[in-house]
Amino acid sequence: MNELALNDVSVTARILGAAFYYSPDQVPDIIELLASGEWVADWHYGSEEQKQGIAAEMATMQRDDETLDEAYQRLFIGPYALPSPPWGSVWLDKENVLFGESTLQLREWMQANQIDIHLTQNEPEDHFGLLMMMVAWVAEHQPENLSELLGKHILPWGLLYLDKMQEKGDSPFYVGLSKLAHLTLVAWQDSMNIEVDKKLIFYR
């Protein structure tokens, strides 16, 4: 990929990663950008029609009976079962557990490539938001490893996660965000001609 294309990957991955990983009150500028629709002209993935539709959804921000912070709590924290769990190992492990075998494989890959995301607490590295931020870092510092990160550790389950978020999320903002992430991942896969590892999916 040329430098301009890598910059597009880095910028969009960082925005998506922050929006999926952090609560809205932690990244108000990102939330405001996405809700404003100002990103549409500079987002070089998806058709204009797709992006305008997504922007209209995200502009709604929240339901009448649920704030955006409450939606984040419901979709990413709990206390009840999450509609679409954002961790890879929940999808790829027979027991649907955190810190499963796929998480350990990701850690080994990170160690082999000297990638450290400096987590402040003991949590799985395969959270979708963290992985998007890792994509941004790899695009900037190790672009030769970008296809492997996406093909082995994100795409085998990430699109299914986003599909279920669209189906079960029940939040205009986060459903729109999931659509945006989906079309972006598909565009990366196509533009980089990524071969995706075939892995069994155990979460339904």
TrEMBL record:
UniProt similarity note: Belongs to the TorD/DmsD family. DmsD subfamily.
Cited NCBIfam families: PRK11621.1 (NF008632)
Record-linked Gene3D superfamilies: TorD-like (1.10.3480.10)
Name of the gene encoding the protein in the UniProt record: dmsD
Organism per entry: Providencia alcalifaciens
Transmembrane segments: none
A Pfam family: Nitrate_red_del
Superkingdom classification of source: Bacteria
Protein name, entry field: Tat proofreading chaperone DmsD
UniProt entry keywords in alphabetical sequence: Chaperone
InterPro entries named among the record's database cross-references: DmsD-type, DmsD_chaperone, DMSO/NO3_reduct_chaperone, TorD-like_sf, TorD/DmsD_chaperones
Molecular function as annotated in GO: signal sequence binding
Physiological role: Required for biogenesis/assembly of DMSO reductase, but not for the interaction of the DmsA signal peptide with the Tat system. May be part of a chaperone cascade complex that facilitates a folding-maturation pathway for the substrate protein.
